């Protein structure tokens, strides 16, 4: 047996670094947290600047509600959130975040600078996380209304974690995918992405059908849009709308599959099964369907906050959801099924 050592409280910084192990895996996980914060803040435009796949620099700037000077250092503290106050809030939380962990975790494994200005503040304020035990100093800064979070040198102080980072291209691909996925769920927000100073993505606010289709084309490629059926069906309070790729536009991977439940990206076995079934007769073995689908259901009938990083959901009536999805997709695809024996004429 090893000799007994006294029990001690972990320092806040170490506690945050341990928590970071769960939420901050790579640059794309940082981007996800920062974008979700911007979306929660009511931003209409989000600008993302990335250098070296996000390992050197990640900067997210938004025009949202901002953070008051007196709350700035608290924003970097663990378990500090403006989004819920009690258990009741937790049960009907609508924001993307609410755990109050992201900024504290990210700040403990990077050099983070948070700059923000609220509508009623005459100037902006700034805090830095690096090397401090979280009693950050608040300083005046220049910034329009909204918030910027700058994250430099991710994992500079956790070499073991840094070792797991892949090439710049791989990290950037992951990061881009996160932005695309979120951009499809928030048509009314403009997204701009630059990598090493080059514009990679410029998505304008899309408020009508044409704008939404354009965004889908920009995110999924024009070929998808040309070979996809628009769909919009509603039954028993369940609605399914979006675009489903024709069988001619299948893929060898599941990389062009976007499914949202009440606006949140979801990867779910039940959903995947329903879609697979609907495409069963029209796709060759080993081919995968393509789709951008939005499923809307009474929020009380679904739990989307099962796990902070996994995209799981729990439906109250999963059988009904499965049958609805399968039924609607199957019917939409019936018209394009080659050699379909039943052709209804009316
Ligand atoms: P959570 O999002 O779970 O509340 P975070 O650590 O991500 O926790 O953020 C902590 C708090 O900082 C948020 O609750 C919010 O009040 C504030 N905050 C973070 N990012 C922004 C932003 N871009 N705009 C406005 N407020 C923000
Ligand atoms: Mg958050």
TrEMBL record:
Gene Ontology cellular-component terms listed: mismatch repair complex
Keyword DNA damage part of the UniProt annotation: yes
GO biological process: mismatch repair
Residue ranges of every copy of the DNA mismatch repair protein S5 domain listed in the record: 216-334
Identification of the protein by name: DNA mismatch repair protein MutL
Source lineage: Bacteria, Pseudomonadati, Pseudomonadota, Gammaproteobacteria, Pseudomonadales
Function: This protein is involved in the repair of mismatches in DNA. It is required for dam-dependent methyl-directed DNA mismatch repair. May act as a 'molecular matchmaker', a protein that promotes the formation of a stable complex between two or more DNA-binding proteins in an ATP-dependent manner without itself being part of a final effector complex.
Family: Belongs to the DNA mismatch repair MutL/HexB family.
Top-rank taxon: Bacteria
GO MF term list: ATP binding; ATP hydrolysis activity; ATP-dependent DNA damage sensor activity; mismatched DNA binding
């Amino acid at each position: 047996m090893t000799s007994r050592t006294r029990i001690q409280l972990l320092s806040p910084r170490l506690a945050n670094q341990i928590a970071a192990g769960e939420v901050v895996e790579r640059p794309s996980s940082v981007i996800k947290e920062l974008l979700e914060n911007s979306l929660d803040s009511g931003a209409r435009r989000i600008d993302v600047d990335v250098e070296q796949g996000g390992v050197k620099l990640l900067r997210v700037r938004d025009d949202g509600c901002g953070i008051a000077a007196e709350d700035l250092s608290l924003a970097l503290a663990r378990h500090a959130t403006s989004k819920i106050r009690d258990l009741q809030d937790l049960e009907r939380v609508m924001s993307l975040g609410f755990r109050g962990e992201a900024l504290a975790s990210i700040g403990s494994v990077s050099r983070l600078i948070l700059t923000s200005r609220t509508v009623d503040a005459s100037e902006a304020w700034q805090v830095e996380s690096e090397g401090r035990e979280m009693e950050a100093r608040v300083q005046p800064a220049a910034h329009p209304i909204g918030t910027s979070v700058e994250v430099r040198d991710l994992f500079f102080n956790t070499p073991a974690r840094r070792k797991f980072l892949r090439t710049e291209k791989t990290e950037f691909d992951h990061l881009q995918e996160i932005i695309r996925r979120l951009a499809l769920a928030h048509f009314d927000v403009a997204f701009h992405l630059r990598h090493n100073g080059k514009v990679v993505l410029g998505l304008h606010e899309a408020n009508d059908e044409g704008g939404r289709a354009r965004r889908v084309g920009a995110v999924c490629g024009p070929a998808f849009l040309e070979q996809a059926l628009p769909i919009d069906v509603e039954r028993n309070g369940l609605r399914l709308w979006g675009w489903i790729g024709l069988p001619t536009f299948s893929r060898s991977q599941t990389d062009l599959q976007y499914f949202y439940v009440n606006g949140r990206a979801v990867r779910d076995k039940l959903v995947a099964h329903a879609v697979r079934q609907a495409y069963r007769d029209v796709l060759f073995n080993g081919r995968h369907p393509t789709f951008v689908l939005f499923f809307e259901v009474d929020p009380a009938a679904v739990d989307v906050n099962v796990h902070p990083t996994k995209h799981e959901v729990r439906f109250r009536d999963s059988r009904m959801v499965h049958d609805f999805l399968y039924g609607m997709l199957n019917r939409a695809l019936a018209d394009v099924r080659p050699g379909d024996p039943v052709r209804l004429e009316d």
